[in-house]
Please model this.
Amino acid sequence: MLRRTIQLALSFVMIMTAAVGGVLATAASAQADECYSWGRTLSEGMSGADVTQLQIRVAGHVDYGEILSVDGNFGPRTKAAVTKFQQAYGLGADGIAGSQTFSKIYALQDPDCTPIHFTYAELNNCNSDWSGGAVSAATAKSNGLRTMWRLEAMRHAMGDVPIVVSSGFRSTACNNAAGGASNSRHLYGDAADLVGSPSFCALAQRARSHGFGGIYGPGYPDHNDHTHVDGRTSRSWSAPNCGV
Model:
């Protein structure tokens, strides 16, 4: 009888241990997957929505003047961006996005898919729903997310120094109140005005290597007190006092 009691007690302990372990394992997985989960290794020649999600997160890891197309197709330029991302964070740099690469991305993002050092609120101090701009609210918010991931790459490349965004998305009303141009990229949600430390020139110079099509800073009219970056698909740079 005593032996049977001991066996039952041991069985109960083993079941509870397994159950707790399962909960912990599930919690750990949920933490990684709460935003987005990749279910396969990605490499050159592949395509799909999971490639698009990867491109959003590595688009700031590009060559000088390069703008990575977020099109869902894993081509040579995406491979190069993945390689640069891997190099930036001390991973094996083979241009193939596997478990180590995804684990690093999971560590860099919050549950809402924003990178850990930037928030939707920081990229939109105009309104709460991203409406009233030149594109739909959903598109503006998506553009804001892409801008944040480029800024995260830039921040890391500059030694993980804080980068402060003073203005991001603007509705038409907010843009008019700010005295913005009628065709301002802020209306599209893909622009950010950067202030604080490091210097405006350092920001403008560094932005050239992180996928920003638009860069304006000191020396350009009305930009001596900030550096503007945006996600337009063609290059338009002007910060004369910074050599840009």
Remarks:
- Residues 1-31 have pLDDT under 50 and may be disordered.
